[in-house]
Design a protein that fits this description.
Blueprint lengths: L12 H18 L13 H4 L4 H18 L18 E4 H18 L1 H7 L11 E4 L11
Helix pairs in contact: 1-3, 4-5
Length: 143
């Protein structure tokens, strides 16, 4: 499971669809609708918020917004619109690590997008994340 900290605009088609699917799985885990993935490290930051379920719904909403920009047909009934501005901090080194991880994937499956993104210098976070100075997260499994 990869719940990206980077902005969903960087993801290719395969990546955005996978993020949608995995975020919905994360929502089910946080809703206690599934037995698996309960202690998945990608969920730690959502669990640390005052309301993990609202937080994951906000996260999913931003993926949905990106899907609309691409004329995808993601099902908006799969999440609840939350009228709150919940923010989660993300370390700048985590963001950089994830971006490099994405570039490796894109080099194999979408070379044109890879060439475009490898020039990116100012990496944007997912809209619900606020970037702070810091290292790669302890929960990250580094290859």
């Amino acid at each position: 499971m990869r719940i990206w900290s980077i902005h969903p605009k960087y993801l290719d088609c395969k990546g955005l669809v996978a993020l949608w699917r995995e975020s919905l799985l994360a929502k089910n885990v946080l809703s206690d609708f599934t037995k698996g993935y309960k202690n998945h490290p990608q969920l730690i930051r959502f669990k640390k918020t005052k309301n993990p379920l609202k937080s994951i719904n906000i996260y999913i909403h931003h993926i949905y917004i990106e899907s609309l920009k691409r004329n995808y047909s993601f099902d908006k009934t799969k999440f609840k619109l939350v009228d709150e501005n919940i923010k989660i901090e993300v370390n700048n080194k985590q963001l950089e690590y994830e971006f490099k991880h994405l570039l490796k994937k894109l080099k194999e499956r979408d070379y044109e997008m890879y060439k475009k993104l490898k020039k990116e210098e100012n990496i944007k976070a997912h809209p619900m994340f606020v970037i702070k100075k810091g290292e790669i997260e302890d929960w990250e499994i580094i290859n």
